[in-house]
Amino acid sequence: xxxxxxxxxxxxxxxxxxxxxxAVDLHSYSYDSAVxxxxxxxxxxxxxxxxxxxxxxxxxxxxxxxxxVRGAGTNLSGGTIPHPGGVVCLTTALDKxxxxxxxxxxxxxxxxxxxxxxxxxxxxKGLLYPPDPGSQAVSTLGGNVAENAGGLRALKYGVTKDxxxxxxxxxxxxxxxxxxxxxxxxxTGYNLxxxxxxxxxxxxxxxxxxxxxxxxxxxxxxxxxxxxDVMDASRAVAAIIANKIVPATLEFMDNFTIxxxxxxxxxxxxxxxxxxxxxEVDGHPTQVEDDAAKxxxxxxxxxxxxxxxxxxxxxxxxxxxxxxDALPALARVRPTTVLEDATVPRSKIPAMMEALDKIAKKYDxxxxxxxxxxxxxxxPTILTDKRDKKEWHKVESAIDEIFDExxxxxxxxxxxxxxxxxxxxxxxxxxxxAAIEYSRKMKSVLDPxxxxxxGKILGPLLA
Amino acid sequence: xxxxxxxxxxxxxxxxxxxxxxAVDLHSYSYDSAVxxxxxxxxxxxxxxxxxxxxxxxxxxxxxxxxxVRGAGTNLSGGTIPHPGGVVCLTTALDKxxxxxxxxxxxxxxxxxxxxxxxxxxxxKGLLYPPDPGSQAVSTLGGNVAENAGGLRALKYGVTKDxxxxxxxxxxxxxxxxxxxxxxxxxTGYNLxxxxxxxxxxxxxxxxxxxxxxxxxxxxxxxxxxxxDVMDASRAVAAIIANKIVPATLEFMDNFTIxxxxxxxxxxxxxxxxxxxxxEVDGHPTQVEDDAAKxxxxxxxxxxxxxxxxxxxxxxxxxxxxxxDALPALARVRPTTVLEDATVPRSKIPAMMEALDKIAKKYDxxxxxxxxxxxxxxxPTILTDKRDKKEWHKVESAIDEIFDExxxxxxxxxxxxxxxxxxxxxxxxxxxxAAIEYSRKMKSVLDPxxxxxxGKILGPLLA
Lengths: 463, 463
Known about the structure:
The structure is a homodimer. Chain A is an alpha+beta fold. The first copy, chain A, has helices at residues 4-14, 23-28, 50-62, 115-123, 141-147, 154-157, 192-196, 230-242, 255-264, 285-301, 313-333, 349-363, 389-408, 427-446; strands spanning 19-20, 43-45, 67-70, 87-90, 97-101, 106-109, 164-170, 176-180, 205-212, 219-227, 249-254, 275-283, 306-309, 336-339, 366-372, 377-384.
């Protein structure tokens, strides 16, 4: 319960203009991008200085107030849905790029920096920050680290985890902890930076990051391959990797998604195709030529009816616009869009596609599937209406089966969307009780009052 | 204290032939590759089955016996020096490569697999396991993960951490915990696999690993650039990176090291050179040609007197033999070899080289410096005699100053050798008290009796 006295303390800490308790503000921060029930916080605060962020953490801990820190709230697992009546702390004012070191190839940033803005900033200096989650235009780097965000380029370049060299974070007492560093190699102490990644705000509050940058590729080439059969497309993905080609991006769209995207923006997509692969290879110009030629011939060997190679940047943009359109186009079809990210080893994609097809038929649901085929990270997207209780019940059963199938194929509950509130009940199926108990022990000593983003990942704790 | 009854229990668990208490065996496992005092364990055990490894852990915890798990003991920081009278558990019999998945590019291995043997095994299948620590011919993968081993290829390919997809480990109660997985993307639960890396056996005992494999480069080219001035060589390193070239390997040797190596094996090295850079670029054949030409011209711009490009595999091997000879050659000169690995952001190498020169002069010590210039990870190697108390005192002061200098330049105490016993007292200078306290809290709840490799990283605990 946020008393007037507590509200005053927050106002003293972050300034009166940065404390919100109006109904409309509380409502605004009661949800994120997951399809879950809204939960109203008791107060929303927005520190402008990182010292104040530490003070907010301490104030919450001293008073046993549950704290959820959030940036843009684009996560799809309820990782930033607050505790009822708890504190929401916005990082949006902590948005400074503190350093870009062009000699040593790293940057130092605050957690509230927008991902795409940061990528553009370093691109202007001739450098690349590869992680490119779908929400990059609005997501913050803090959220990316908290969820270990992936993206389209993960196949070749890896995910957020692979670019975090250091994390400074506040522990629950508001003490600043430094971990990792600016050197390529660093083994001093526990890998707390690694532990912070994907911990969804449950073990500490990020103050700043040291992020790795890389030289951008000298050349790239995008292409679109059209398949009359989903299984052939899936097999082409496996064959590309088996031929030791690692494309920067290797994306999949099924027929339903293709048709929906074409309906959304007339771009001349092959609406009769069972599936499309959208592929980009990058690197040295000669390598790009060689890889593109090999990819084209592998797709044709796997019965692609056409492979269109983008001739210029405009054509390349058209390829990626189609991919970017997938989610907004699907989301228009029905009132509720459930975007899943159960992930399998890439050789199991054909089996996963078959399973998805069966599940859709069994429950009579519309599932459009697209996603990152190259790393086995598909996004089966269920189009439904949550208000239709009968259908929603079928959706829940279908989701259960999708997870069971992914795990049976040696995969994971979540490739890049996180566990949050949405998937914590499934954790034991993948990790087993022992891993959860080990994690709970850690949590219990690092956050003894259980104030840091309660309920996320590990479910309700007894603490 | 290992009683007869306890010895019997160990014998029942791992078999009589796998339990050692003879003086000669206890002596054999009383040290590792660090220059530290020997400490005798009370018993040495060698489980042949991974279930038995879990039972050994439980037996130790139930009886409050301090446990140090080790492979080849090649670490340079005392990470595998046992507790006085404690238990040493060898992983050398747990040496199976359980799976190599050529479609999904991963392998599953037990901790006792020898690094080079594993690399050769996957190479025979046309795949690359990049981490190549100097001790790879004898080191185990378990030790590599426990220390987050680096190596020569880290500049382009990263360190052990970058290839660990999953870790199964026993907690202190002998419960098996699974973390990470076989998919390229995985964000299910805390990144416990990441936490295990570099934790030096203090948080759990490794049962198996899932390791990432990559396609090997299609071509490579090695070269040797000779400089009449150390600073010019250092600046050439920075210029290569600033030109957005990322060599697979970019190694440095100073004049003292060059002369010592030439003395060790007559190979025609330039004994008058102030410094040499040993460089390998790899990738697509055309890229290799382009990069090699650029590297050559950058070295010449920075006053290299000669750049020799290896014409064939024999010449390439000669380049790398010289680098591999550095440590054994230096180690012959005096009775005691102190191999340091204080690491700086790579642009600070010239400053670090100047500092090392000053420190050597100040204390009148012989320091040969070689190492991984490309990632700022130099190995200043002090040649001394530990029995000479007066000189040893100077060596200790010099080491203190080397660490101070590395930290002042934004670097780290250890790039790849670990903290172990040797550097735990310096931890607070880099990480601060808060990070150590945070780590100690974790340790205290995950290992309440403090049996897991006590004293390493965090120093003596009160527990």
